[in-house]
Amino acid sequence: MLALQLTSDGMRLAEVPEPEPGPGEVLVEVTAAGLCHSDLTVAARRPDELGFALPVVLGHELAGTVAQVGAGVDGWQAGNAVAGYGPRGCGTCTGCVGGRVNYCRVGSDRRPPGLGADGALAQYVVVEAGSLVAADGVPALQAAALTDAGLTAHHAIARTGVGEGAVVVVIGVGGLGHAAVQLLRERGCRIVALDVEQAKLDLALWLGAEAALTSVRGVEADIADLTHGEGVDAVLDFVASDATLGLAAGVLGRDGVLSIVGVGAGRLPVGMHAVALGTRVDTPFWGTREELVEVLDLCRSGRLTLEVESVGLEDVEAAYARLAAGQVLGRVAAVP
Ligand code: NAD
Ligand code: ZN
């Protein structure tokens, strides 16, 4: 079968053997696999920094159809529409037992598909049966993008605790950010979106943002005006560069939350006089399985519809290049 592998020489489309499900595993025929900015970060690392062996098939946003179940698998049968829950945990720590596998305290040597184990950018992928979630009634492109872009945005917002009337700044209206705008709209928040691309700002306004501003130095004053100088309740930073973190610190009001979702290498100076009093900083990771079920339900009910462009596997490398250049609107997903 065809698969998009990460090798020690970068990405390449390769012919690889079709995988077979072992005990407790399921063979999934991929119907859509999303491309995440995190893949670019992973691909930019030196092979010895990765902590897993190459080559490996990329793609951690999985939607598919069950093709075959391995020995001992109950609950799934050929033809079921599924989405992949990514985080892997030890199963016994307080994080895992409490349903927060994404914050497993111990870590697992089992890697998520696409992030160390062979992933979804292929015609077939093998996953643990317990990592699948029913996705019937959700279009494949949506289901794929919801497993990370949708889920991570939902999780980050839930942890901020923002509700009706809160003013929230979204920095970076990309795959995750454009999901965040919709999720905040559904919570009744006032949204100020920042990006460096006009098309992303237009998308944010269309999705319900009250204001969409170019992310440049000095924009803090415009944001302050929107809150009559009080500062905003929360900032979701999907970029996390020095510049965006500095901007976030500059616009947050007292007792606000800064959620750093992007994996940029920026630094945030903190301390009594560097940020507003009572500022809480969060570094959310992915989301819980329950929250994945929630975003799939939000999509089924029409309250969350991601902007997802589909490409064939042969166009995935070019699509990653566009993603790196900021030229993707919403998400891109491969349809193998
Ligand atoms: P994306 O490329 O789709 O979106 C990034 C957006 O930021 C783009 O719209 C781009 O135009 C915009 N941008 C770039 N520089 C900017 C600036 N200075 N100010 C404002 N906007 C700017 O990426 P994505 O897939 O949505 O991922 C966003 C980030 O979240 C990445 O860093 C990714 O690695 C990270 N991520 C984190 C988690 C987690 O669990 N914490 C999960 C998935 C992705
Ligand atoms: Zn654990």
From TrEMBL:
Pfam family for this entry, one: ADH_zinc_N
EC number(s) from the headed UniProt entry: 1.1.1.1
Enzyme class: oxidoreductase
Region (Disordered), start-end ranges: 1-22
The protein's required cofactors: Zn(2+)
Catalytically driven reaction(s): a primary alcohol + NAD(+) = an aldehyde + NADH + H(+); a secondary alcohol + NAD(+) = a ketone + NADH + H(+)
Source organism superkingdom: Bacteria
SMART domains, alphabetized: PKS_ER
Keywords (A to Z) from UniProt: Metal-binding, Oxidoreductase, Zinc
Cited Gene3D superfamilies: Medium-chain alcohol dehydrogenases, catalytic domain, NAD(P)-binding Rossmann-like Domain
Domain Enoyl reductase (ER): 7-334
Family assignment from sequence similarity: Belongs to the zinc-containing alcohol dehydrogenase family.
Protein's UniProt name: alcohol dehydrogenase
